[in-house]
Amino acid sequence: MQVPLYQAKAEFFRMLGHPVRIRVLELLQGGPVAVRDLLTEIEIEPSSLPQQLAVLRRSGIVVSIREGSTVSYALAGGDVAELLRAARRILTELLAGQNELLAELRQAEPPLSVPQGSAGRT
Questions:
Q1: Which of helix, strand or coil describes residue 7?
Q2: DSSP structure class, residue 3
Q3: CA nearest 23: which of 7, 41, 48?
Q4: What is the pTM of this model?
Q5: Is the pLDDT assigned to residue 120 strictly greater than 80?
Q6: Which residues are registered as beta bridge partners of 70?
Q7: Under the phi-then-psi rule, with left for phi > 0, alpha for psi from -120 to 50, and beta for the rest, what region is 103?
Q8: pLDDT surpassing 90 at residue 113
């Protein structure tokens, strides 16, 4: 039985749903990056990164490249970089809308007034 497309999409987004994986993908947008450099940039426990890289590699989003004793990772295709740019645009629009709403709320908020005769009482 074939998995429905919406379920496959949900599994794809679930796979992306970890901050370390997103950060790795952001760092790989500029080209291959050695694992030691990823560790420096991400600042997580060294034992955690290989697990996250394995998830990305199994999904086919990244590929590993071995040169001597150095292992680097790279994006498997340019579409992932475009997805991250689209996410940034969407978040920018959402946050801009929230800022506009916050400004409206602050403008419409009446100043707090202290009832007469109660100033100075405890």
A1: helix
A2: P
A3: 41
A4: 0.75
A5: no
A6: 67
A7: alpha
A8: no
Predicted pLDDT at 118 = 58
Q: What is the pLDDT of residue 62?
A: 96
First-last CA distance in the chain: 73
Could you tell me if 37 and 76 are in contact, meaning their C-beta atoms sit under 8 angstroms apart?
no
Instruction: Kindly state the helix (H) or strand (E) to which residue 33 belongs, with its residue range.
Output: strand 33-34
Distance from C-alpha of 36 to C-alpha of 38, rounded to nearest angstrom: 5
Report the 3 state secondary structure along 69-118: CEEEEEECCCHHHHHHHHHHHHHHHHHHHHHHHHHHHHHHCCCCCCCCCC
- Tell me the C-alpha distance between 80 and 16, whole Å: 10
